[in-house]
Design brief:
By secondary structure, this protein is an alpha+beta fold. It contains three helices and five strands. It has a five-stranded antiparallel sheet with strand order 4-3-2-1-5, with no helix packed on it.
Length: 164
């Protein structure tokens, strides 16, 4: 087979629909609301050819900078020769879904705000709050423990028996 370098080369599995997910696209795909500034994941839907991004952007996360009737403009970072370029692509809504990458961050910010408000009510300054409460801490290793079986089995070698 000749070696091809087409626009959709090597996308057989990438653009394939998931198992038992082929057929008509759910209406909820078109009813979701996207606003400028939202974080979205570019996930290509192989059933819709219009407004399909290049395979490079599949799986990338970007920020919505423009919203039109059928499509959204997404700003995605692309590293080229050591530089980080902000690429602007226009993608139909079928190829985009809201990103969950910032959920943990937003939850942490809200929790920190509650801690800061409680400290303010108690008469403390923010610098007096220990950083362990505000910053994420790495997961500590498990504590040491001994494994003691109830009935240990002693294994002994079987003597060699030559039965020829």
């Amino acid at each position: 087979m000749p070696h091809s370098f087409g626009y959709r080369a090597r996308t057989r599995d990438m653009f394939a629909r998931d198992f038992r997910k082929s057929g008509t696209i759910n209406l909820s795909t078109y009813l979701k609301s996207l606003k400028v500034g939202d974080y979205v994941d570019v996930i290509v839907n192989g059933a819709v050819h219009k407004g399909m991004p290049h395979k490079f952007y599949h799986g990338r996360t970007g920020i919505v900078y423009n919203v039109t009737k059928n499509a959204v403009g997404v700003e995605v970072n692309k590293i080229l020769r050591g530089k980080q370029l902000k690429k602007r692509i226009n993608v139909r809504v079928e190829h985009v879904r809201k990103s969950k990458s910032r959920e943990d961050f937003i939850k942490r910010v809200k929790a920190n705000d509650v801690i800061k408000q409680d400290a303010k009510k108690a008469g403390l300054k923010i610098r007096d709050i220990p950083l362990e409460k505000l910053k994420r801490q790495p997961k500590a290793p498990k504590g040491a423990f001994l494994v003691r079986p109830e009935n240990p089995v002693v294994v002994a070698p079987v003597p060699f028996d030559d039965m020829l």
